[in-house]
Amino acid sequence: MSNDEHVTRAILKAIDNGDLEGYQPRSYSGRAMYGRDCLGIIVARHEILKVVGRLVHAIHDFADDDTIADLLEQDPCQDSMGMDAIVYFPRLPWVDVGTDPDEEDEEPASMQAG
Description:
The chain is of the alpha+beta class. The protein has three helices and four strands. It has a single domain, classed as Threonyl-tRNA Synthetase, Chain A, domain 2 (2-Layer Sandwich). The termini are far apart.
């Protein structure tokens, strides 16, 4: 598993654990990504500047220092979604948690279709 996939999985785990209330993960293909999907998180517009700090705080209990450092090296982007915004990380791939052979849990509720 790449470091970027590790970061994505740590973030999805934190969201699924309820550590980031109001954050909605989804696959996203932003500007100049040419159809490639990455991790996107829908947040309230007033949360945009807080996202990376809240992510680091949320994953610190179960992520190692290298994973946290990798998160801090990301270059998040943002797009408006009306009243909300999406913060997306072009270098962090969207992953299906169910595809990780080390994961024994079912797909996180935050990723399941409505």
